[in-house]
Amino acid sequence: MNLADLANQELGNFDPKKDAINNTNQGLPAGDYVVAVEDISHHVYEKSGYDCVRIVFQVTDGEHAGEKEFYNISFATTTKAGKEMPEFVLTRNMKFIAKLGALLGKPVKPSVFAGANETDIHEDIATLLRDGKGTLITLTVTFTPNKKDPSNPYKNYELAPAEQPEAIDVDENDIPF
Predict the structure, then answer these.
(1) Taking CA 29 as the corner, what is the angle to CA 53 and CA 86, rounded to the nearest 5 degrees?
(2) Among residues 70, 74, 67, which one has the least CA distance to residue 48?
(3) Where are the domains of the chain?
(4) How far is 141 from 14, CA to CA, in rounded Å?
(5) Which of 59, 70, 92, 98 is most deeply buried (CB count within 10 A of its CB)?
(6) Which SS3 state, helix, strand or coil, does residue 56 take?
(7) Beta 68-73 vs 154-161: how paired, if at all?
(8) What does the H/E/C string look like for 98-124?
(9) Could you report how far apart the first and last alpha carbons of the chain are, in Å?
(10) pLDDT at 39 over 80
(11) What's the longest Cα–Cα distance across the chain?
(12) Cα separation of 110 and 35, whole Å?
């Protein structure tokens, strides 16, 4: 892509009087994407202390091929304000991890969530699912309105199976040296 094409693409919806320069990476737009699970890890952000399972998806084909979607999922039982985490948030996160595990061939049992604290739970999940890296799945991205901040809608994810590439069978006779 040349600079003129890039400028047309990026500046078309950019209002230089209102929009922030560095607020450009909003992730993938709504749609269905075949993605490879690039990374699953336990991560703690240095500045905020936010503790989570970090999942990185990379789009494998189409207009957004090569782009990455980062999803942080936490099993903290209290919010940063010290209030109890809403149950629907925790159950949604559990279902996401269970579905991801099923798609990766790594069943997630309820005992995974029985760790002594969120850090242990995040580490156990990352350890369990880590071997599924490289698996292709279908990632559906949707948005729902945020009543408190309409300019920042909620991003939702759904997962589904995707066709896996056939494994290449190579034996010693196929190796040239």
Answers:
(1) 45
(2) 74
(3) 37-133
(4) 22
(5) 59
(6) strand
(7) unpaired
(8) HHHHHHCCCCCCHHHHHCCCHHHHHHH
(9) 40
(10) yes
(11) 64
(12) 27
Q: In which band, very low, low, confident or very high, does the pLDDT at 171 lie, cut at 50, 70 and 90?
A: confident
Residue appearing with tokens 């993605």: 35
**Would strands 154-161 and 136-144 be described as parallel, antiparallel, or unpaired?**
antiparallel
What amino acid is encoded at 128 in this protein?
A: L
- β-partners of residue 78 are 84
**Residue from 122, 126, 136 nearest 57 by CA:** 136
C-alpha gyration radius of the chain: 19
C-alpha distances (whole Å) from 114 to each of 26, 37, 40 are 34, 25, 20
Q: State both tokens at 142.
A: 């949707």
Give the DSSP H/E element, type plus range, for residue 153.
Answer: none
CA gap 76, 98 in Å, rounded? 17
pLDDT confidence bin for 19, thresholds 50/70/90? low
Residue type (1 letter), 151: S
Contact criterion met (CB below 8 Å) for 106 and 39:
no
- Mean pLDDT score across all residues of the chain: 90
Pair of tokens at residue 168: 């290449």
